Amino acid sequence: MSTQPSTPDEPVENIFDPEEQLSPSAPAVAHRHPFPTATLVLGLVAIVVAVLVLGANLLNWTLDPAIVGVSLLAGAGFLMIIGGILTHRQSDGKA
Fold first, then answer.
1. Rounded distance between C-alpha atoms, residue 21 and residue 31, angstroms
2. What is the CA 21 to chain-centroid distance, rounded?
3. What DSSP assignment string belongs to 36-72?
């Protein structure tokens, strides 16, 4: 490895040009990651919990914690199943 600057006769490789890195035989197809269903469901559960806590504190709602917990788990599970089915259908190319 030399510390001398390259002369104009030497070919310079541009490592930042993406077109040079693609080989002509490899198709330029972007791989789509599956939809982050778990992140969406977790965010929805957090929003529901926040609304219920604010409602209980500000509006004096009376909630049964067991029923609320079971309902949240059932709803989250249902959304995860639906999201998994939709993601699977999209990956098979049926949707």
1. 17
2. 27
3. -HHHHHHHHHHHHHHHHHHHHHHS-----HHHHHHHH
Tokens of 81: 């199943």
In this structure, what is the dihedral angle of CA atoms 71, 77, 78, 82, given to the nearest 10 degrees?
A: 160
Q: Which residue has the tokens 């914690």?
A: 65
pTM: 0.60
Chain length of the chain: 95
**pLDDT by 10s per residue, the chain, length 95:** 556 655 666 666 666 665 555 555 655 556 667 778 899 999 999 999 999 999 999 999 999 999 999 999 999 999 999 998 988 887 776 54
Q: Name the one residue in this structure whose structure tokens are 């006769």.
A: 9
By CB neighbour count within 10 A (0-12 exposed, 13-18 middle, 19+ buried), where does 9 fall? exposed
